Amino acid sequence: MAHPRDRKPDVFLLAAHCLEKSSSEHGRNVRRISTPAIDTLMAYHWPGNVRELANVIERAVVVCDGSAAQLTLMNGFVAREEL
């Protein structure tokens, strides 16, 4: 599996794909990732593979109570001190 850190330009596209997939699988209406959350995802060094990104997005979808996954929903999963 590829590491997102090696594919920084693709992180947004991968995150969008994971969001659509997770939203559908969990029957949620989460349609986008907030701009601050995207910035955090893009800046994160991603020590794991694409599954790590998918898991972060899935967790954000599951706990989201609106239509946009927020940075606050990802803080516990994407360590801010590693940005």
3D architecture notes:
- The chain is mostly helical and 83 residues long.
- It has a single domain, classed as Helicase, Ruva Protein, domain 3 (Orthogonal Bundle).
- Helix content is 51%, strand content 5%.
- It contains four helices and two strands, in the order αβααβα.
- A two-stranded parallel ribbon has the order 1-2.
- Helix 1 (11-25) crosses helix 3 (50-63).
- The radius of gyration is 11 Å and the shape is globular.
- It starts with 10 loop residues before the first helix and ends in a 9-residue tail after the last helix.
Beta-strand fraction estimate: under 5%
3D shape: globular
Main sheet?
2 strands, parallel
Number of domain units:
1
C-alpha end-to-end distance: 22 Å
In short:
This protein has 83 residues and is mainly alpha-helical. It has four helices and two strands, in the order H-E-H-H-E-H. 27% of the residues are buried.
Keywords:
mainly alpha, Helicase, Ruva Protein, domain 3
Note the topology:
Elements: H1 11-25, E1 32-33, H2 35-43, H3 50-63, E2 68-69, H4 71-74
Parallel strand pairs: 1-2
Helix pairs in contact: 1-3
